[in-house]
Structure formats: C-alpha cells, structure tokens
Amino acid sequence: MAESISDESVLQSQIPNTKVGRHPTNRRLWPLTLLLSTVVPVLAALLVYQLDSFDPAPFPIHEFGQTPISALLRNDHMLQGAEFVGAGKLLGPEDIAYDSESHLIFTGCEDGWIKRVRLNDSTVESVVNTNGRPLGVALGLNNEIIVADAYKGLLNISRDGEVELLTDEADGLKFKFTDGVDVADNGMIYFTDASYKYEFHRHWLDVLEGKPHGRFMSFDPLTRKTKVLVSHIYFANGVAVSPTQDSEKV
User: Fold this and answer.
1) Which residues contact 137 (CB under 8 A, 6 or more apart)?
2) 193 and 151 in contact (C-beta within 8 Å)?
3) Dihedrals φ, ψ of 38, to 5°?
4) CB atoms within 10 A of CB 15
5) Quick check: 174 and 168 in contact, CB under 8 A?
6) Per-residue pLDDT at 38 exceeds 90
7) pLDDT, tens digit, for every residue of 58-72?
C-alpha cells in the first residue's frame, strides 16, 4: 500500500501546473494585450481625425480683454394674452411666412412637412413634405412658397403642393446648409447657405471650427441663374429685404 501511494505521488508531481493564472504563455501575452488596447484606439482616432477636414481657427486669446456686450432685459409680459398655435402639430417650426390675403401662416417643421395655419380658427393643415429639413420660408410673387431646405436646396412649392428644385449649387459648389430666404418686390430671391462645408446635422462642427463657410446669394426666377453676392460669412443665417427694397440683411 505504501509503495502504491508513493508511485501515485510521483506521478502527480510529474503533471505540469495548468492553472490559467500561472500559465507562462499568459504572462508573456499580457503586455502585448495592454499595448494593443492602448495603441489601436489612438491610431483609429488619429486616422479619423486625418480623414475629417475639421480645422479649427486659432483660439482668440485677445477677446478675453474685451468689454462684455450688454443686452436688454427680457420682457416678461410679451407673451401675456398670446395664443399657442399648433401645440403637438407643429414640430420644430423654424420660420414663418404670412399671406395677408388668405390669412394663412406657412412654416417648415423638423419632420419635413410644410404646414399652414388658418388664423380664424388656428387650424393646422399639411401642405407637402420636402423629405428634407425646411428652414427659411417666404412667399413668392405668384402665391408660391419659397423654401430654403437645409438638405435639398432652394425649393419652389406651388399651392397645389408640387415641389420644384430651383437651385442647389453656385459657382460649382454644392449647398450643404441652405438656411434663410426672402423675396424682393421684383421677384428676386435672396437666400443663404449657412455652410458649404458642414451639413445641417453637423452644424455644431461649423460653430466649433469658427471659420466663415457661409454664403449670401440671389436666384433670378427669370434667368434661372444663381449668383454669389457675399462669401466667407460666419454661419450665414436669416435673410430680410429692407422695406424700401434697397438693401438686404443677413
């Protein structure tokens, strides 16, 4: 019996230790694993950064010495007696255009719908979906609706709901963020492309980059020509033709 036990002890002593925590191969691999888990994300981040053209402007240190701009206090009584129109039916309306003859208000919503609101009973009706993001809205000379759609470009929408693309590029450069629009008394359409570099859903990159990618343009419905009036604008947004029709504000 003693001899049998001795043989078993000898046999067990010859079996190598196979516990995972003490395996020599694992001890050799963990530095490589640690290195890969650190280097690979860094290389991936550098690759994405190089592929993306994000190029921020230098930080304006000198602005810290400027006197803060003062603003008027808000008017807490401005909305007293106001009526909230289209609650739950108008999702993210950006701009409005009012037709004094039909007493209709037109607006574009974040779900792509152009909506109209009847002033007499505040009824909200759907006109047409641009399948984009309508932002600026203005009325044309023939009761058509002119829309600056962030993704589609400058659109003409008839009262029957037919959508026509007027323009989506100027000087060989496609619009990335068609934004504001207004129509002069002579029919000339003035509009902006807030950024020729970043799309609407990436507008925050345009703000962070801090460079003038915006353009102010005109579209002539007679000649069908698009003209760049001013370029290198910081986030060109809304447009308004002056009441005297002799200037435009961006």
Assistant:
1) 94, 95, 96, 97, 106, 107, 108, 114, 145, 146, 147, 148, 181
2) no
3) -95, -45
4) 7
5) yes
6) no
7) 877 777 777 777 777
Asked if 155 and 164 touch (Cβ cutoff 8 Å), the reply is: yes
Write the burial class of residue 93 (CB in 10 Å: 0-12 exposed, 13-18 middle, 19+ buried): buried
Task: Name the token pair of 50.
Answer: 């190089």
Confidence of residue 17 (pLDDT cuts 50, 70, 90): low
Neighbours of 196 (CB within 10 A): 19
Report the chain's C-alpha Rg in angstroms.
Answer: 32
CA distance 77 to 71: 17
Q: What is the pLDDT of residue 81?
A: 82
pTM, two decimals, is 0.74
| Domains of the chain, each with CATH number or no CATH | 96-249 (2.120.10.30)
140-162 burial by CB neighbour count: b if 16+ within 10 A, else e? beeebbbbbbbbbbbbbbeeeee
Classify 36 as helix, strand or coil. Answer: helix
**What type of residue is 110?**
E
